[in-house]
Fold this protein.
Amino acid sequence: MLGVNHMKRTRRIGVLTGGGDCPGLNAVISAVVKTAEREYDMEVIGFLDGYEGLIENRFVTLGGKDVSGIMARGGTILGTSNRANPFNFPVLQGEEYVYLDRSSQAVMNFERLGLETLIAIGGDGTMAASAGMIEKGLPVFGVPKTIDNDIWGTDVTFGFDSALAVATEAIDRIHTTAQSHHRVMIVEVMGRYAGWIALGSGIAGGGDIILIPEIPYNVEAVCERVRERNSRGKNFSIVVIGEGARPTGGEMVIKRTVKNSPEPVRLGGISHQLASQLEAILNIECRVTILGHLLRGGSPTAHDRILATRLGVEALHRVAEGMVDHIVVVRGTKLEVIPIKDVAGRIRKVTPDHNWVRTATSIGISLGVPAEVDLATAFDTRTTAS
Ligand code: F6P
């Protein structure tokens, strides 16, 4: 009898990484490939650059050797794209791009390769595209990822802890220069419409004021906190602001719009607006640091490596049992599955009852709300930029 390694593999699955990259993607890929090979003798095909690779039939076969040693590497060995929307895909016609529905091509390529299931590792954009592909007949199983920690239905996403670690170290470093120069230092972090990165790194880094998209901030309340600190001899302040934050009555700052992206709005730059307002009112020097993509790069933390590996292993076991159309999520210490369609189009934001909110206010951090206003009523239910 031939050993397992010499038998022809009869089961094949596909895997892709979609949307913005984040630390931990390679750990998921590695876990999927190793579990498929070791426990089910399955072959794994990796599509390049997210759904783009499936539409354009660009892929690699992944074996144990291909994923050896990749867990500690940031990014994704498969490449990714946050513009590869199968239902609105850019195709060059003459000198111009036209946007076409290429979802049927994706299904056809998938079937030609004799694949059972596609494991899509991605954020809400990828899950929304996957929900559409499921309706077209593509059997998809999802694994959630994002530094933003904003995927609905899961307590936490891998990539978030790594982003928090980088942001916290940056705020620590900003502290010493803020102290030396007696300035207000504003640190802007990613996170889109959710304030998880700002709130978490602000608490961990000892921020004095944390401004998140969920709570429109009152500029006077921010100034008041800076003045109050000065009156106590603290002649510097650290403001941590999420890129999706906005003042009461104001708008989020949109940096650019990416035409064919499932999620076209790119935020960024609110910190400059805040700095001008604070300088004008307080007559104190302000400086801005926008951490941007630094938060997405580099090696995952141990926490994210373990979480990503657990998710990859769980996804593969579920897929091997024949489960499709679901996404694996974290609930407390357990991994569970929920339908992808429940996740698509929704995001998980910071809520007034989250323990990080109470933690922040209890240790004296200002969330940009005047003292006389009940914090819970200051939360905004709007989810996206208008
Ligand atoms: O979703 C992850 C994220 O890094 C967001 O925090 C940020 O708003 C966005 O992606 C940036 O996207 P891009 O890489 O297209 O600039």
